[in-house]
Amino acid sequence: MNLRVFPTAQATAAAAAQAFAQAAREAVTAHGAFRVALSGGSTPKLMYRALRNLPQVPWKAVHIYFSDERSVGPDSPDSNYRLAHDELLTHVPIPEAQIHRLEGERRPLEDAARDYAARLPEQLDVVLLGMGEDGHTASLFPGTEALKATGRVAANWVPKLDTGRLTFTFPEINAARARWLLVTGAGKADVLRGVQAGEGDYPVARVQAPLWFLDEAAAANLGR
Length: 224
Ligand SMILES: O=C(O)[C@H](O)[C@@H](O)[C@H](O)[C@H](O)COP(=O)(O)O
What we know:
Elements (H helix, E strand, L loop, with lengths): L1 E5 L2 H23 L2 E5 L3 H10 L10 E5 L1 E3 L9 H8 L21 H11 L6 E4 L23 E6 L4 E6 L1 H6 L2 E6 L5 H9 L13 E5 H4 L5
Parallel strand pairs: 1-9, 2-3, 2-5, 5-8, 8-9
Antiparallel strand pairs: 4-7, 6-7
The structure holds 6-phosphogluconic acid.
6-phosphogluconic acid (6PG) binds next to helix 2.
């Protein structure tokens, strides 16, 4: 596994923010824009806070997408867009037209998935992801239909949450130039050990060549 391990969640988030800034500069130099998909979750939230204070991020050339969304509107406290907006996007000089949110309030959700797929660029530079304690990533939960989806974006019914989600599919995640997984906390240590050992059937194990940003607590059971 390609691991970067830091003492605390805060340090992990700060390192991921630095990596974001550097990747953005490199992408803008190479092809004039940085196209990145954001996620929800506790570690991304810390990263967004770190990122808004960093200098030298070429925000005017950054294009924001989302790797998943809950089935709620942009004002909901559960909205991944709202998290990114409140913690990051409202604090930086990014043109509004370059922020592409998933329409979690649309019904059927399939329509939102179809329209979002049509708006996606040919290739994303970086997809930022978290991981749940059941091994889900984006909104690709164990045993759900979207694990098999072949399009770019899927509407996914998640029985254990009794709700629908919008999510990038594995083909979309794996087509990006890079995939970063931000995972912190002792609650994630067992799943990570299983992923490393090739045990269990964790959705996150299907993310190809990820770069892992971990804290010591999450990495505790890994062979390094
Ligand atoms: O919308 C979501 O819920 C996320 O995109 C999801 O995939 C998240 O990243 C993981 O559940 C990890 O969340 P934590 O970092 O809060 O554990």
